[in-house]
C-alpha cells in the first residue's frame, strides 16, 4: 500500500528583480502535483534552513546581477560559504541541483549561479541533477522549462539512493524492487495531468466557450501571419500545456481620501536616500542627432552623499502620469485614484509563504501605488498571462492568452511579448475584454526599480556637485505596441528639466547655469572596482563611445585636480578612445581638448561612424577599429607597464567588439594564439585591470 507522506526537498531562491523567485514558486506549485513537498525559502532567510545539517535534496534557483555578482539577497550566503577555513568535506552530505539565470550579453554569464555551484563542489557537495544555465538574452524558458521537467525524475532517483544509503527496511517504498516501475507510472500519470492543465482553473461551462473559440480561430485563419492577438497552425490547433493558475494572495480594501502618502525614502531598502535639487541641464547633442543626450547637475552640498569617480547612483523615478491615468481608466478606477487602499495577505490563500509585498506601503493611495511602487512597463511573465486568462470574457481573446503562456506558444511569447517589449497596458488594449482586478496587478507586477546612472564628475574638482549624462531612451511603435514611448526614468527627467534646458554651444561652463526648484531623490550605488588606479603613476586606457564617456569625464576632472595639487607626483599616461555618429551633432564633450592641452589627457583618439570622408584612406568608424591602430601602445600599457583598461557603454555592439580587438592585439604583439590571448585577458579581468561598466 502506498504511503501518503510526501517526500520533502529544500527549495532556495536568490533573486534581484523577482525572476528567480517566480521560477522557484513555479517549482513549488508543480511539486505538489508530483507528490512532493518543496520547503521554499529565500536564500537570505538563513535562520529557516541549515545546509550544514540538511539531509534532503536541495534545489537552488539563483540569478546574476551587475557585471556577474550574485544577487543582493545571496551576499551573506556567498560570504558564508566562501569562508576559507571550511574543510573540503564540509558539504559532503549535501545533494543539490542548481538553476542559474543570466544574460549572455554580459561577459560573466550566469556568474551568480556558477560562483555558488563551484564553491559547493569545492566543499564536497554532490549534484543529483545537472546544473541548468538559462539565458535571458534568448528567453529563460528555453532552459527553465525542460530543466524543471527533468527535475522530478532526478529528485525521485535522489530519494531512492538516499533510502538505499539509509538502509531502510524492505517495506520502505524506495528500496523495494517494485519502486522503480511505480515511479515510472507516477511520471506518466503526471504528464497526463500536464496535458489536462488546459482545464485547470476553468469551469466545466467553459468547455463550450473553448470550442466556440476554436471555431472563431478557424474562421480567421485567412490571416496567414501570426501577431500578438492572432495565431496560426500549429499553435492555433494544438492542445495546450499551460501553467497552473497562480493562487491569489492579496486583498485590497478601499478606505477614505484622508491622510498622507509615505515618503519615497520608505520605498528604498538599499541605503539612505537624498532629495537634491537639479541645478543645471544641458543638451549635449544637436537637435538633428539620432539620440538626445542630456547632462544634469545635482547640488549635493547640503547632504552627506559622497562618491568617487566611476561610482554609480540610483534615481527614484515614477511611472508616466498619462500611462497611470490610462491604466486607472481601463480598470474603471479613475474615481478611486486618490482613495487610500489597505493591502493585506488574503486569509486562507494557498500560496506558499504568502507575505505582504515589501515594495507596497501598508497604507497609501491607489495612484501612489501605480505611480511609485509597481513597474507597469514590465514585460508580463507567463504566470501573469495565465492569471489574465481568468479575467477575459471573449473566447477568442481567452484562447490567445492561453496560447501565449503555453509551452506550444513559447516562440509567440518571445516574439510578440518579450522581444516587442509589450507591457500590461498594451495587453489590455489588445485584449479589451480582459479586466483584471487590482489585487492581480499587485501580485504580478514587479517593484518599480530605481534607475542606475554613472557619475560623470569628481567631488574633488567641483565639490558639492554631481554630474550625470544619459540618452533619452526611445521605444518606437511596433505592430505589437502601437504607441511610441520614452524610457520610464529618462523620459521623466527630460520632462522635469525641460524649463532648465538650453542648447549646448560646445561649452560646459561649470559656473552659473539656470537655477531650479525641481528636486529628485537619489541614493548611492558605489562601484567597488571601476575606479582610478590607486597609484597615480600607473598608465590607463579609457574606451567610452557615446554616453559611455560619462565616468571618464569624472576620471579626467579628478586627475586634473590631483595634478594641480601634487606637482611633485609622477602621473602615468592616459589614453581616451571616444566615438560617436557625427562630429558636429553628437560629439558630447568637445572640451576634452582642454584635458589634452593641460596634459591631463596624454592621447585622445576620436572616430565618427556616420560622417562621410573624402580622404584617400577611409578613417576607422568605430572605437574598436581605432584601438587596433594603436596595438603596440595598448599592449605596452597592459603588459609591460601593468596598466589598466576601462570600457564603458553598450555591451552588445561595442564592449564585445573591444574585447575581441584587445584579444587580437595581445595575440599579435605576444606572437601567440588566440586561446592564449583570451587566457591573458581573463587574468587581467581577474586582477581587476580590465574593467567594464556596460549595459545592454
Automatic annotation (TrEMBL):
Reaction(s) catalysed (UniProt annotation): 2 cob(II)alamin + A + 2 H2O + 2 H(+) = 2 aquacob(III)alamin + AH2
Gene Ontology CC terms, in alphabetical order: cytosol
Keywords: Amino-acid biosynthesis, Cytoplasm, FAD, Flavoprotein, FMN, Methionine biosynthesis, NADP, Oxidoreductase, Phosphoprotein, S-adenosyl-L-methionine
Predominant cellular place of this UniProt entry's protein: cytoplasm
PROSITE patterns listed in its UniProt record: FAD_FR, FLAVODOXIN_LIKE
Subunit structure: Forms a multiprotein complex with MMACHC, MMADHC and MTR.
PANTHER family assigned to the protein according to its UniProt record, in alphabetical order: METHIONINE SYNTHASE REDUCTASE, NITRIC OXIDE SYNTHASE-RELATED
The protein, known as: Methionine synthase reductase
Gene for this chain: Mtrr
